[in-house]
Amino acid sequence: MNITDEYDHLAPKLIGKKEGTFAYYTVRDRWPKIVTSLVDQLARRRAELIEQYGTGVERDIADILEKFAKLRYEIMTDKALCNLCEDRLDGRKWREMLNDMRTGIMPNDTEELTYFKGPWLFVECFLYRYIYSAFLITNHLGQMDYFEESKKKNFMDHLPQIEESAAFLMKISAKDAPVHELFGINTILKSSLWGNRADMSLTGGDDHTMKMSSIAASSKLADYVLIDDVNELICKVLGPLQINEKKLKNRRVDIVLDNAGVELAGDLVLAEFLLARGFADKVIVHGKAIPWFVSDTTENDFNWTVDQLKEAGPESTKFGEQLKKRIENMEIIFKCDLFWISPHPYYIMEKEAPELFEELTSSSLLIFKGDLNYRKLVGDRDWDLDTSFKTACRGFAPCPFFALRTLKAETVAGLSAASIDKLLAKFDEDNSWMTSGENS
User: Fold this and answer.
1) Three-class secondary structure assignment of 404-434
2) Do both 71 and 175 map to the same domain?
3) Distance between CA atoms of 351 and 11, rounded to whole angstroms?
4) Can you give 67-97 as a three-state secondary structure string?
5) How many domains does the chain have?
6) Out of 91, 370, 380, 384, which could bridge 87 as a Cys pair, Cβ 3.0 to 4.6 Å?
7) Which family does the UniProt entry place this protein in (predicted)?
């Protein structure tokens, strides 16, 4: 694993020790809050878990609570990251990465790998892997999705918005719809983008109900879009895919998912639209192998969401049934490579996950959803705003790719001079626009 390189001087990695930054606020406030919410959940569900697993689960709960009390203290007092105590899944790999980071992380040898001083992305990924480990080594709770309740609630809180999206999809994707095949793609993509606003990790798991449907937001929030390459995507990628001059039957689109709940519903709308309107023959959706960053999509979330679409209304019911047929016919496939839960920037995917990288080279289009994927694309660095996106991605390009992201971290590249001037006029030196989730 590369620890340092010339880009550390050009665009330093984001770290949590710089007061006033969102990374600092995240380490100081958000992470302890997330750990506390898990403690509260276990306390609240104790009787339910005892009824489900027997009194033996009390020892598991006590062990987890002890670990989380220590974890919260260590975060708040900036202690060094500990080792994982198990080898399952990617546990051994994490010990290797931790050792590498401890010996090569800093420009000098005077600081340890701690919660505030370590690279924000690396430490944040470690935090969620440590939480998973605490459950994994118990006798009864190793398969528990401790973020499941908040993800399901997010879905149920947005049933009207989901039904509106499904109705729009069913109308424009019907075989007899009197529209050109490219009609609606802008709306569908922007809808998938603005679904990313309902991010539970941003609130520590608290409710974050969108007041406006993502379909409505696709047109009403146009002024908040800082970089809009949809027309270029249509001309260079989606148009040729739909025209399909060579009559290919293996056109593949990959979507690297972000949050479950209403955002996942919107991403499934996007997947179905691409298939129904002839842009792809197969859509691969990539999720997380374990509970991750509070609200990220796991396979269970994916399956549950498809089943629960019927709760949103009649159009969503039709949509859900169509998705089940797609899944049965392997036109929509869920995958969860371990690379997606690693702390690695994507430019080293070819080295760290060569099989995944090779698979993606056969994709016609790769769509990255959300802030975490964007952070990994650009290496979670403090780029100058006018640095080209291509430069920030450091050569990563297994196939044509596109990022749909609302800003929730202080890293962005590829802004035009006009966008930068607009932001400076509105915010001056205030960087809150980079972390509010209001801009994309």
Assistant:
1) ECCCCCCCCCCCCHHHHHHHHHHHCCCCHHH
2) no
3) 22
4) HHHHHHHHHHCCCECCCCCCCCCCHHHHHHH
5) 2
6) 91
7) Belongs to the damage-control phosphatase family. Sugar phosphate phosphatase III subfamily.
CA angle (119, 228, 269) in 5-degree steps = 90
Q: Which residues fall within 8 angstroms of residue 26, CB to CB, at 6 or more apart?
A: 16, 120, 124
What was the pLDDT predicted at 436?
74
Summarised one tens digit per residue, pLDDT across range 378-428 is 999 999 999 999 999 999 999 999 999 999 889 999 999 988 888 888 887
pLDDT in tens, 258-312: 999 999 999 999 999 999 999 999 999 999 999 999 999 999 999 999 999 999 9
Answer yes or no: do 173 and 117 share one domain: no
pTM: 0.94
User: CB count, 10 Å around CB of 369?
Assistant: 29
Kindly compute the dihedral angle of the four CA atoms of residues 83, 200, 377, 264, in this order, to the nearest 10 degrees: 120
Dihedral angle sign, alpha carbons of residues 376, 381, 385, 388: negative
Contact status, residue 112 vs residue 129, Cβ threshold 8 Å: no
> For 14-41, what is the mean pLDDT?
96
Q: How confident is the model at residue 206 (pLDDT cuts 50, 70, 90)?
A: low
pLDDT tens for 106-140 read 545 556 899 999 999 999 999 999 999 999 999 99
Compute the Cα dihedral for 401, 406, 410, 416 and give only its sign: positive
> Both 62 and 192 in a single domain?
no
pLDDT at 197: 75
CA 60 to CA 233: how far, in whole Å?
Answer: 50
**Within a domain: residue 384?**
yes
For the domain that residue 129 is a member of, what is the CATH number?
A: 1.20.930.60
Cα 141 off chain centre by: 25
